[in-house]
Amino acid sequence: MPGTTHRELMAWPHWVLKNLYGPVGVMFGKFYAGEEEVAAAGGRIPAAPVSFLPVRAAVRRRDPRFLRATPYLASALAAAEDDGHDVFEHVPAQGKEIRTWARHLLPLAKPSTSSPGTSASPPGRGS
């Protein structure tokens, strides 16, 4: 998509994945090519050579702090349990219906705690 940044391209998939998998104890992050990050402890995280969405098992005592902008998701993650259910069970199969389904997950836009100057929610809501 010409003129679209990696940040813009990754916002919506990241949002949907963390809402689908957070309640079963799986965390998704996001790193953008060429952007240096600062860790919660204040240390420098080197710039990523490519944009990517890392995935890992959640650490229930620690990880809810990454979700301060979405308290409902932080609570779900803190109590997460993988009971084996299909997280895509209630997700429609068609693109337009997926967007409609995902709208109920969107909070009002708030500043991102990991990337200053950006929203914690994907484009199209509150901005």
Automatic annotation (TrEMBL):
<feature type="region of interest" description="Disordered">
    <location>
        <begin position="108"/>
        <end position="127"/>
    </location>
</feature>
<feature type="compositionally biased region" description="Low complexity">
    <location>
        <begin position="111"/>
        <end position="127"/>
    </location>
</feature>
<protein>
    <submittedName>
        <fullName>Uncharacterized protein</fullName>
    </submittedName>
</protein>
